[in-house]
Structures are given as structure tokens and as C-alpha cells.
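Hi team, as promised in this morning's meeting, here are the two structures we talked about. I've kept the exact order from the run log so nobody has to guess. The first one is mostly here for context; it's the second one we should focus on when we meet again. Sequence first, then the predicted C-alpha cells.
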Amino acid sequence: MVDWVIVRLRNKLDPTQIEGTRAGILHQDGTVTGVDGVSPLEFILISDDYYIEVNHRNHLGAMSAAAVTLSMGTLEFDFTSDATYGTHAQRQFTNNKALWAGDGNADGYLIYNGPNNDRIPILTVILLDPGKYIIITQLFGSWIL
């Protein structure tokens, strides 16, 4: 176990509508399990297409670029691939992709507003990224820049 994440399933027609939310355990290999650390993350919803969103406490969240078909059984969804979520919504590290870190000024604190906030350094780095198109998902809503 490395940390915890919040995973949400959003409506295929209106991604602002959250259909289900679960906390999950993030493992060193990047997989997410239920809070027992072993079981898959389980949602009790009808089989349908949903956007998948993942949020970490000190990173910018990410959402799938398209709705994903979910049905009975286990789904593996790879957030390290360009094909899975919005162009340039993730950082490139060697052969892997990762969420944008939230501590933009590397002072050890996550501050949205006020002196020494992380919002301005984060937006500067992201907006200077060559893709200029990202999806930023926060715990209380989604924004497309």
C-alpha cells in the first residue's frame, strides 16, 4: 500500500453528474484495490458506459477521455496511457505517465489561494505544456482548460 485514492464513475451523457464514488487503496505497482487492500473496487450500478475519474490527495485528478463500458466482472483501466484520458492531462516520466503533482512550488504544502499558493505554479506549468488541452478534475467538479 502506498496511499489512497477516490475513484468516481460519471454519467456518460453529462460527466458533471457523479453516479458512484469509492475510496480505494493505491499500491506501489499503480493498481487500485478496495479498502481491504485485496478486493477489486466495487460499484453497484447498472451495466452502462461511464467516465472514470481518479483523484489523489496531492495531485490533480484525471478522468477518462471517453465513457468506458462497465458490466459484470472486473475491468482494468490504464491511466498511464495517452489513449485513456485527455491529451496532456498527465505528466510523462520515461516510459510511464503520472498525474500532475499538486505541490507546485515544492514547499511541502498544498495551498490553493493566498501567499505561496500552488495554483499559479501548477497552471503556469500546465498552460506552457505543448498540448494546451487538458482535463483537470478536482474533488468538487471538473474543468476543461
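And here is the second protein, the one for discussion:
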Amino acid sequence: MLPQVIYRDMNLAGVVVLLCAAITVSMVALCYADLSSWFTGSGAAWLYSYNAFGRFWGYELGIFTWLLGCCTLSAEVVALLTTLKSFLPIFSNHWVYYGSVFGLILFFSIINFYGRTIVKFVDNLSSAAKMITIIVFIVVRVFCIHFANFSPVIPHAAMTGAMPLIKHFGSTFSVVFYMFTGFSFIPIAAKQMNDPEKIFHGS
């Protein structure tokens, strides 16, 4: 759902914003990669802060990571159901909508409860579904490209008023930056990976 926000604020110049956000997040990712090469355990930012600053700050960051995970899960469930509304009007019904929200969260909780084997299978299945969707979208929509839509590169609204371009860039950048932050959850399960130091240091 976020690409439409990027296109609205920066039009085709959103590609430049994507590259800037990718470079910025890469700097953060390199910090994670370097830190992960020093540890063999799981925990990501919690593990690093615990060893560097002690139990209190490790606990604080662990709680924050858990809260971030809950917010991310909630946002993705709501985004999925909001998208489904446009295809299936039944989700416009409040009982169906909120029932589906709690049902999906309960479903994911049960999957996690029964261990990493099921989680790994569901994760691989969802990743394959995402890739297939992207490939199908590209193949189908490449024939619908109209070069007249490539102008203007920057929206007119971003070129008028006091510092509008900076504001548009900033609002778009924050959205894109959010899209890239998922990598921070990967080292949480480092202990379940083969040679995690090599994986993250190599990345």
C-alpha cells in the first residue's frame, strides 16, 4: 500500500527517494552486520545493548523490539484486509473485518507456538507467493506503460510554496525508510541459522 503514497508525494522522483533510503538503511545494516560478527547468540539489538550497556538497557530494548514486532504484525494484517476490501466487499462489514483481524493474529500465534518448522514452511510459502505476485504484476503491467505518464517527474505541488520539495522528500523518505526496517528482526533468530557470523558479516 505504501508505493501509492510515494508516487503521490514525489511521482517518478520517488525512485531517487528509494535509492537514498536504501543507502541510509544500508549504513544501519552494516552496523548490524559488524555487531553480529562478534556474537553467536540470538537477540539482535537486544543482545548487543545487553553486552554493551547492561541488563537494564538490554531489557528496555528487548521490550521495544517486541512492541515494534506487535505493531508491524498489526499494520500488515490491517493492510491485507484493507486491500481485500477492494476485491471482496464482505470485508466492509465491521464484524467480518475485526473477526478476520483477531483470526489472523490467533492463526499466526498458533503457528509460532508449534515451533520453527511450521514457521519456516509458512515463511517460505509466503515469500514464494510474494515473488510470484511481483513477477506476474511486472509481466502483465509492462504492456500497459504509457510514456505520457512519465511527466512531470516531480509533482507540481512539490515545486510551489516555501521549501515544498524538502517537505515532500521528507514525508516520502520516512515512508520508504519504514519499508526497509524489517532486516533488524533477522538476527533475532541467529541461533537457528548455520554460521550466523558469516551470513551477517558477509551481508
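Starting points for discussion:
The longest helix spans residues 55-85.
The chain has one domain: 2-202.
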